[in-house]
Please model this.
Amino acid sequence: MAKNQYLRGKMMEPSPTVQFEKWFQEILLTGTPYPEACCVSTLSPEGYPEGRMVLMKSFDERGFVFFSNRDSVKGHSLEGCPRASLTFYWQPLHRQVRILGEVELAATEEADAYFSSRPRTSQLGAWASLQSRPMKNRGVFEERLKKITLKFKGKKVPRPPEWVGYRIIPRKIEFWQERPNRLHDRFCYIQTSKGWKIQRLYP
Model:
């Protein structure tokens, strides 16, 4: 990494994952609700970009993981075009992080482990919801939830087969720090055959 790659006097880490971990720990210290919330954007079969908020549940050198229903709009989009981006915005620290990359399914064991850690009501809801499909009225959904609740009464709620984890394998990660007069700091990590390359960008 070039010696002049500094952000507000601090040298950027050679690994974007380590740099993200630093920023993530700093936003956690502010007590901001849902610091793991991010916008995941996919490409629809018609070629339109579609964004929605999800909760990033884990990250490491392999990528960033969130969970969803494979039969949802995002699930079908990712099946047709397994590429996506994540955008985090942490207002208290005036920071943004954008992550672009390919998408793969997380291991079944990962999905099972996280699903089992969810509140029981959320587990039941995952079974009752036909995510993204048209619904005649709220009562239909509530009736489905009652039936599912009765079905698993006194039993462990298993993970629905369509409820999976998605891992975004980053190819590009941009860190943005707001500065006065819109003279922001921007750094982009780009994956190359030799590892991560860091570029400073104009604001």
